[in-house]
Amino acid sequence: MPAWTRDLAGIPSTLRLRVAARRPVPAPPPDPGEVSVRVRDPAPVDLTRRMPLNKLCELEDWLDPRRVAAIRRCLPYFVAIQPDFPSRMAHRKHWEFAQLLCGLEELSAVDAGSLVLSVGAGHEEPVYELTNHVRWVFATDVYGGTQFGSLEGDGRMLVSPDRFARVPYQRNRLVVQWMDGLDLRYEDGTFEVAFSLSSIEHFGGYHGAQQALQQMARVVRPGGVVAIATECILNGVTGHRGRGLALFTPSEIGELAGSCSDLELVEPIDFGVSPATMSKVKPLSEALLEARHHVTDYPAIVFEHRRRRYTSVFLFLRKLDRAG
Ligand SMILES: C[S@@+](CC[C@H](N)C(=O)[O-])C[C@H]1O[C@@H](n2cnc3c(N)ncnc32)[C@H](O)[C@@H]1O
What we know:
binds S-adenosylmethionine; globular; alpha/beta; disordered N terminus; Rossmann fold; 9 helices; 13 strands
């Protein structure tokens, strides 16, 4: 049995057949870009190090006590099931939540008076968790309008955010709005922070992602922060543009980060990835089946789609204060 017909025990046979029947795709050409991912030496992790903010998701990041505490804060329902969570349950989605919360704290980006915007928010936990620390959180998405309509982009979020709340939160500080990330209907400089997790890769290729970043930069005040998590290819091949999903090369990520003249990276992007992170790769088709059946085979960090291996990369950018 070829490797791409994975063991999907426990998943209905019709779905299993659909996955197994897919033909193997040819290898994509190498990426001609100048930036590439570097597999690190398998050295022991220095637990006293400061964890970079602009980086790829790595298995060793679960050794950072601040990240672990943030993951536990965002996902208390996992802690209730498994007291030592997130031990043995590394998922890049949880990492994105932790990286966002720890990064905003480290950059002193928010306080009790802040306005925070999430673009392509779905019903992610950070929009709830942040209401405990800021004045207002605006969760925006084209709720019900894409292939995510029955998943993260569930339209019921618009009328009843309480039903999706799995974190204790301040319900009078959360505003949920239907809004296209390519056309943010806010005045310039409204927010202290605008962020987007796992979403801009669904906005229409590189140009959609770039337009969304531009919009976020516009609505953030000078000195404010724009934070993005998106997909970065690890195995040195060209980018992918599919229906509703783009996978970006490291060069494209660098280009995206530099594409908005009002924004600058708070620090360079660390494109290093550990051998342990690369040692488990999950086909995207399998991850989608797992999501549908509410099961996860951990760690869920590196995925593969059309012969591209990829994981999340996080970018924190600051809006330049041209007047100051
Ligand atoms: C993978 S989900 C991520 C949701 C959430 N950020 C999270 O991390 O759970 C991608 C989200 O992007 C939303 N989306 C797709 N295109 C959009 C657009 N043009 N503007 C705003 N949101 C969009 C989808 O509805 C979906 O909720």
